[in-house]
Design goal:
The complex is a heterotrimer of chains A (356), B (328) and C (589). Chain B is 73% helix and 1% strand. Chain B has 328 residues and is mostly helical. Classes of the chains: A alpha/beta (356), B mainly alpha (328), C alpha/beta (589).
Chain lengths: 356, 328, 589
């Protein structure tokens, strides 16, 4: 198993050259009237071709901001982005709008959460798909339309040559998301960022969409970043997980590592708040208590400390004074002052019974 | 679409019918008795009766309404024979203007139409242009200047800006012609120069309105998810701006413009009075002062008809812009 | 006087003192409109109207010095003419334009000294009567024609009078009709349209017209000078529709009349100046434009640009906000017209409610003329009135029974004394007024003055549109209310009879004070019968004085007028009859 574990560790941690996307020390700050919002703070991660990275966290944890930063969709006047984002070796931080426009939709693309609002109500599905294709390949209208039909077929839309001329409102929710996926994959991008792609859909459709994504990934070898607050979705789709809290990564590892032996109190909280079909019915769900912190005035020390049930266990009150680093550098890592032994004990004694 | 138009047109007829009834009822609630006003100083009761009879005012209000309504289809002959027969479509005879109401309306309409269309062309082009520019340069100097200027212009009223412009452009400098209406068929240049000052003033104020409206709906559209999607697809700034954001903002602008156009075509009372133009608005206020009932009903119906028609047009156009709206 | 009434109504609706003018310097009038000269202290003394002879009635009209023919004159005004059918014309404004289009039996011509003289217009002279005014005979001149060249005959005149009886004629004067056929004249005769003829007017031959009145009316020749008795040809009569485009007997005919927009006149080729002692008709064309507010016309006249150089205005006066500026500007002086209008403002006392003369005198003495005039435009609004007749009326005599000129601000002490004598301290006065912002202020000034004099003041606001209807009711419940009045022709008859004849009291009639004094009634009857105009004038002046002594109401102000015209025009005169600019002598310089 070590041979298998090795590349995973390398990818998740250090700066492997095999990573298709490599983010280092990324910080995103917005200036607002109330002050500077530190939406993403010193974040590093990698994504390799053909794999899926799940980014998990509550709203406001910086998941979406990170990915918009990768695509360069923030308003440059109000946003301060530092660090490095390398896509196939090309530095995206500070790249010109023109360069980014060339990459968007072609090399990297995005699937948005709510396909109803994310698709233009004024243009047909075919147009919206074909438009991307034409922009990046210079294809004719006819070619673009054929390509759109091809893509719709690929994502499983029945009667694609008819539906290609429909408007988004004529599609059902799941169909819309399929169309959205078709649109993002029309140029065979190397990286697809899927931002809560199934949140707006009902459960049966969710599974179909996720299966579709997986199938297409296998077929095209695409790297996927799957943003979600739903650990269940990640469990079935991703190879690696990064848990984000207040703009930082608090836990990182393979799906197995993070879901089976989570080590951060926040991850525990997330897992406890998730229903488990295989678990006992009478175990109550426990949402993480408290609310996410303001990104303008972060709590001192560990940003999670006001909501953490275990900060008393840390000797010397480090939780409120010192910010924990994400350690170790590679492999399954957490940002928490609890000792490795404490984490293991608490998980086994208190958390695991709850998860069932 | 055809079904929509037929259905809405029938609905519009019903609405107009109701409006005409309400208008009739309202005007008869006004205390001033038009017959009494015409009767003059030495008004004997006998004379008043005669006058009431010749004006048809001695009949019950429902009967007068019926006369009015049927006149539209079959014409109307006034009792007494002092007044020419009013051929269908007959909207009545104005005892004040000594003319057929319909003829007067037809005579006044080109003025209002020219005033409206001329300024609409200007304020649409400049209003939308400036608004888009401001939205594009959101937060920058150009935006701030445009927003401030349009705020100032919007808060100006025609009865302030009008006389001011007349004084500055006409009276004291003789730069431009006095506002007057010459039919375009008679003298296109005279038509243009005669309406230039009203167009300038009206456009200025309306441009400001449309600048603000365009800017705010463009800014709103630019935050829409699908605009973000378009950018995420790699669409260039211009095409995102025009093909997506503008497409979305257009609906709002078309709607407001349609309603504005309907109202303007019904006659801009203050504008026309300020510039001494003789359009439907001036006719309306004049008829009110003169208690010219038949004319008042006529003008009201014209204004109501335009508003109703443009509401239908707006709905139809909106459906063309926004495929989500289905006409049935 | 419907004329006055509609004007006032319109003015009230616009909430603007339309008739506001100033009187600062006695030489303020410019173009020899001497009749209306004078500052507030010394109103016009001599009668400005005289009666002319057959010689005076011959054409052409006295030429204006330096005048020349040709050109187009522009006229700008707020409103279109509400009537052009002579039978419907009562309003001064309509009358003024009617002079260009329509002729009457008689008319007024300007004399070099600025006064006016009654002369024959279509008639060879001002008419003859042999029985003190009961029967009047007029002979038509040779060469008078309609615009199509057919001669104007006595039958045309007869027809024109007959049609004033028809039911569609709603707004013209009714003096002649009543004199011919009685108060209920429409029942006696319904007009010529059913083929019936009116016997009281006879046309024995093509040139002679004879009127037979039921009573003597020695000033009927003045009455027939009213534009309301202009001629209309039977062949062209379109009844109600005639009002828009009358057929010309005067020097100009209508090319186009677009209601409320414009009226264009060109020369009537069949009008012969040799037959017309009144009209000079210098311009070739007139272009009249409506919808120009007083503020705009004032600005335009002041700027004097382009076509406005050749413009004048019948009715638009200098807007109140420009009066000081206009009066101070020496350059404007040569083209400024100023004068008294024929209108007098009264505060009518309801004589059926205030029967005690001492109380009425107290009201007159207490009344704050100075304050109310100040609110309405100051000296430009008019001169303090002390008589019921205007100084513009034939026979006017100055008098000041209650020392109004000495104490225009009101004399509360004298009023208190009168009230005490009458044992009426604390007498309630219900004051009805037009509910406009300006009149609210005026009412407040009156309240202060009357309360200071010991009255109990009860204000009663009325809707502007129905104001006259409300105060016109015989059984109205008000004690004091404003009303304006102007003579239809400048004799005492129309100044005094309609307002003070007790037999004329009726709902909507103009005896707003409800005065029914036998002494006054018989004085009216006596004055009417005096054939000599000057003697008659004296009788009216005596009646005026009697009314003052009886304290029947409160004369307030003789209204003044101030107007401008373009620098390119000459011969623009102030018409004292109507208080407007006269078109008769205007020429393009």
């Amino acid at each position: 198993m070590t041979t298998q574990a090795k590349p995973e560790e390398a990818a998740a941690g250090g700066g492997s050259s095999t990573a298709f996307l490599s983010v280092r020390d990324l910080s995103v700050r917005f200036s607002t009237e109330d002050g500077v919002v530190r939406a993403v703070d010193n974040l590093s991660f990698d994504v390799e071709p053909g794999t899926t990275l799940g980014i998990v966290g509550e709203s406001g944890s910086g998941k979406s901001v990170t990915n918009l930063a990768i695509l360069g969709l923030h308003n440059p006047e109000k946003t301060d982005i530092t660090g490095s984002i390398k896509l196939a070796g090309q530095e995206l931080v500070g790249a010109s709008t023109k360069e980014l426009e060339k990459l968007r939709g072609k090399t990297m693309s995005m699937i948005f959460q709510d396909p109803l609002t994310a698709l233009s109500p004024f243009h047909t599905i075919g147009k919206q798909i074909g438009e991307t294709f034409r922009k990046h390949t210079g294809a004719s209208k006819k070619e673009a339309r054929d390509r759109a039909i091809e893509m719709l077929t690929k994502v499983g839309i029945p009667q694609p040559n008819v539906r290609v001329d429909d408007y988004p409102h004529q599609f059902s929710g799941g169909m819309r998301q399929r169309a959205m996926i078709a649109m993002s994959l029309v140029c065979n991008p190397k990286l697809v960022i899927a931002d809560e792609p199934t949140t707006a859909l009902d459960v049966t459709v969710q599974a179909q969409i996720l299966d579709l994504l997986k199938d297409l990934q296998q077929e095209m070898g695409t790297a996927i970043i799957l943003i979600t607050h739903d650990l269940g979705v990640v469990a079935n789709t991703a190879q690696k997980i990064m848990v984000m809290y207040a703009g930082r990564a608090v836990e990182r590892g393979t799906v197995r590592e993070v879901l089976k032996t989570p080590q951060h109190p926040y991850t525990w909280g997330l897992l406890s708040s998730m229903p488990n079909l295989s678990g006992p019915v009478d175990v109550p769900l426990r949402p993480v208590r408290g609310t996410p912190p303001s990104l303008i005035n972060l709590p001192s020390g560990c940003p999670f400390n006001p909501r953490c049930d275990f900060r008393e266990k840390v000797v010397g009150g480090g939780c409120t004074s010192e910010r924990p680093a994400l350690l170790p550098e590679a492999g399954h890592a957490t940002a928490c002052h609890l000792t490795a032994a404490q984490k293991q004990d608490i998980f086994i004694d208190q958390i695991q019974p709850r998860l069932g | 679409m055809l079904r929509f138009l037929v259905r809405r047109s029938l609905g519009a007829l019903v609405i107009l019918l109701i409006i005409s009834m309400v208008t009739f009822a309202l005007f008869f609630a006004i205390p001033a008795d038009p017959a009494r006003l015409y009767c003059g100083k030495v008004c004997s009761p006998e004379n008043l009766v005669l006058i009431k009879h010749s004006m048809g005012l001695d009949q019950s209000v429902p009967m007068q309404y019926w006369n009015w309504l049927s006149g539209i289809f079959v014409g109307h002959t006034y009792p007494g024979g002092d007044v020419p027969h009013c051929d269908a479509p007959c909207f009545g005879w104005s005892f004040v203007k000594k003319d057929m109401v319909l003829d007067t309306l037809m005579d006044r309409f080109p003025t209002t139409l020219s005033l409206t269309v001329g300024s609409a062309v200007v304020f649409l082009i400049f209003g939308i242009g400036t608004g888009m520019l401001a939205a594009h340069k959101q937060g920058k100097a150009a935006d701030k200047i445009a927003s401030a200027a349009s705020l100032v212009a919007t808060s100006m009223q025609i009865y302030v800006a009008g006389p001011l412009a007349l004084w500055a452009l006409v009276y004291s400098t003789d730069l431009l012609d006095l506002p007057t209406y010459v039919p375009i068929t008679e003298d296109p240049i005279g038509w243009f120069t005669g309406l230039l000052v009203p167009w300038i003033v009206l456009s200025l104020i309306w441009t400001a309105n449309y600048t603000r409206m365009t800017r705010s709906s463009m800014v709103e559209q630019l935050t829409e998810d699908y605009v973000r999607t378009a950018r995420a697809k790699g669409m260039s700034g211009t095409s995102v701006f025009m093909r997506y954001a503008w497409r979305g903002a257009m609906g709002t602008i078309v709607t407001v413009f349609g309603i504005d156009l309907g109202v303007l075509l019904g006659g801009a009372i203050i504008t026309e009075s300020t510039f001494g133009l003789h359009g439907l608005g001036e006719l309306a206020i004049r008829s009110f002062i003169d208690s010219d009932l038949s004319m008042l009903v006529g003008v009201t119906m014209v204004a109501a008809t335009f508003i109703v028609i443009f509401n239908i047009v707006v709905d139809a156009v909106y459906a063309l812009i926004d495929p989500r709206i289905r006409l049935a | 006087m419907n004329a006055r009434k509609s004007r006032r109504l319109a003015a009230a609706i616009m909430v603007a003192g339309a008739l506001t003018v100033t009187t600062a310097c006695s030489s303020g009038h410019s173009n020899g409109d001497g009749a209306a000269s004078g500052a507030s202290k010394e109103p016009v003394k001599a009668a400005s109207i005289s009666v002319g002879t057959a010689e005076d009635s011959k054409g052409p009209a006295a030429a204006e010095p330096n005048a020349k023919k040709g050109g187009t004159v522009n006229m700008i005004d707020r409103d279109d003419f509400s009537h052009l059918d002579p039978a419907q014309i009562y309003l001064n404004y309509n009358s003024e334009v009617s002079l260009l289009l329509t002729r009457q039996l008689t008319g007024y011509k300007y004399l070099p000294d600025g006064t006016q003289k009654l002369v024959g217009d279509l008639a060879t002279d001002t008419g003859t009567t042999t029985d003190g005014g009961k029967t009047w005979k007029f002979t038509l001149k040779d060469g008078v024609k309609w615009q199509d060249g057919t001669p104007i005959t006595s039958a045309d005149v007869k027809y024109s009078i007959e049609r004033t009886f028809a039911s569609f004629v709603k707004s013209g004067p009714t003096y002649v009709q009543t004199w011919l056929a009685g108060d209920k004249y429409r029942e006696a005769y319904a007009g010529p349209y059913d083929g019936k003829s009116l016997d009281a007017v006879q046309a024995p031959d093509a040139k002679t017209v004879v009127f037979t009145f039921k009573d003597a009316h020695p000033d009927a020749n003045f009455t027939l000078a009213m534009t309301g008795y202009g001629v209309v040809p039977k062949a062209q009569d379109t009844k109600d529709a005639y009002d828009k485009k009358p057929f010309s007997s005067g020097p100009y005919q209508i090319v186009e009349h677009v209601t409320d927009k414009s009226l264009d006149l060109v020369r009537n080729p069949n009008w012969d100046p040799a037959t017309d002692p009144i009209r000079n008709a210098y311009p070739d064309k007139w272009h009249m434009e409506f919808g120009v507010q007083a503020q705009q016309s004032t600005e335009r006249f002041m700027a004097d640009n382009g076509a406005d150089k050749l413009a004048f205005s019948f009715h638009n006066q200098v807007h109140p906000s420009f009066i000081d500026q206009v009066k101070a500007d020496e350059k404007l002086k040569p083209r400024t017209l100023e004068g008294l209008s024929p209108y007098v403002d009264y505060y009518f006392i309801n004589n059926t409610r205030i029967k005690d003369q001492k109380v009425r005198e107290a009201l007159i003495r207490a009344f704050p003329h100075q304050q109310t005039r100040q609110l309405q435009g100051g000296t430009s609004y008019g001169d303090y009135a002390t008589t019921y007749m205007s100084p513009t009326v034939l026979g006017y005599e100055k008098s000041d029974v209650y020392d109004t000129l000495k104490k225009p601000q009101g004399d509360p002490e004298a009023a208190k004394k009168l009230l005490t004598e009458a044992n009426a301290m604390g007498q309630t006065i219900v004051y009805a007024y037009n509910n406009t912002p300006l009149q609210q202020k005026v009412t407040e000034a009156i309240r202060v003055a009357l309360e200071a004099a010991g009255f109990k003041f009860v204000p009663k606001p009325l809707d502007a549109k129905t104001y006259y209807d409300a105060i016109g009711l015989v059984n109205n419940e008000y004690d004091l209310y404003w009303g304006g009045w102007g003579a239809d022709w400048p004799t005492g008859y129309t100044s005094l009879q309609p307002v003070w004849d007790g037999r004329a009291i009726a709902d909507g009639a103009s005896n707003y004070a409800h005065l029914n004094d036998p002494e006054v009634n018989s004085a009216i009857d006596a004055a009417v019968k005096i054939a000599d105009p000057v003697e008659q004038g004296k009788a009216w002046a005596a009646l005026d004085k009697k009314l003052q002594q009886k304290a029947v109401s409160i004369p307030d102000v003789y209204q003044r007028s101030l107007s401008l015209y373009g620098s390119g025009l000459g011969g623009v005169k102030y018409d004292t009859l109507f208080g407007l600019q006269s078109p008769l002598n205007i020429y393009v310089k």
